[in-house]
Each structure stands twice: as C-alpha cells, then as structure tokens.
Amino acid sequence: MRRVMSVMCLAGVAVAAACSEPTVPDSPLVGSWMAPRENLQPRGSFTTYLGFSNSKFTYVVSNYGLYSGESPGTLSAYTNISGTYQIDGDRLVLTANRIATWDAFYGGREEVEQVNLILFEQARFRIVAGTLVLDYITYPADAAVPTTRSFTRLGLD
C-alpha cells in the first residue's frame, strides 16, 4: 500500500509540474529595461520601463511634472500594461491582458481594464551591448510606419 501511495504522489507531482506555467528558458530578454527619459511639451517628461520574467512582461510609461505647480520629479500619471510574451527567433509577441492607468488630474484613482491585444505590432528584437532594440509597426495616422525603440538593461538581472 505504501508503494502505491508513493507512486500516486510522484504521479501527482509530475502532473502538477506539467501543468505549471511555461517558462522562457535562458531568454536574453529576461530582466529590466528602461528607455531614455523624454521631455514633453509644454512641460513634463516621461520614462518607459519594460520588464520580462517567466513568460510575462510589464510595460510602464510614467509621466512626471505634467501639471502646473508640480515639480519635474512628481509622478503625474502612468500606464501599466502587463501580459505574456513569446519569442520565435528574433520575433517578439507581447500579448497584453491588463492595462492599469492612473492620472493625478482625475483624482488619482487607478482604472483597470482587462484586454486582449498585441503590443508592438510585428515586433522584432535584437540585443546589442546591453541595449534592447525593438523594431515594430505603429499607425500614427492611417498608414503603417516602421518604428524603432531602444531600452538599456537595468542592473545585473
């Protein structure tokens, strides 16, 4: 009876391991990345963070000093997008499932929306000397425009 219980326990552990979330083995993307701070007009600036871990991603745009009376370092608003990612060669598919936004102008209450959308359409990536370069398509008007965005690795992830 003990042997049967041991086999059943081992089978249960094997099934649980097989059902656990998939990982992205040895992905060069795993870690934290930050784009250079950019200035806004007429005032303020924003930063863009992109993080990857265990087949999940987080993309955060933080706005600072947007409103009259705020110092340049005061957080004014943010958008936090999260979801899963897949890599196929140099192709990168980011599938967002949650968008959280917050803006001090509207009383400071975070709004959360469940979504199913692709971030960075037709994205390809490369990593050169600690810099993640994303090439993707944007639609600033009615036509597709090739776009490139660079992020620097943060810390020793």
Q: Could you give a quick summary of the protein structure above?
A:
The protein is mainly beta. Helix content is 11%, strand content 57%.
CATH topology: Lipocalin
Class of secondary structure makeup? mainly beta
**Cα-atom radius of gyration:** 20 Å
List SSEs in N-to-C order. Answer: HEEEEEEEEE
Q: Main sheet, how many strands, which sense, barrel?
A: 9 strands, antiparallel
CATH second-level architecture:
Beta Barrel
Q: Could you give the count of β-strands?
A: 9
Level-1 CATH class name:
Mainly Beta
Strand order of the largest sheet: 6-5-4-3-2-1-9-8-7
Oligomeric composition of the shown chains: single chain
Total count of domains? 1
Distance between the termini: 47 Å
Tell me, rounded to a whole number, the average pLDDT: 85
Fraction of residues in helix: 10-25%
List keywords for this structure.
157 residues, mainly beta, Lipocalin, nine-stranded antiparallel sheet, 11% helix, globular, disordered N terminus
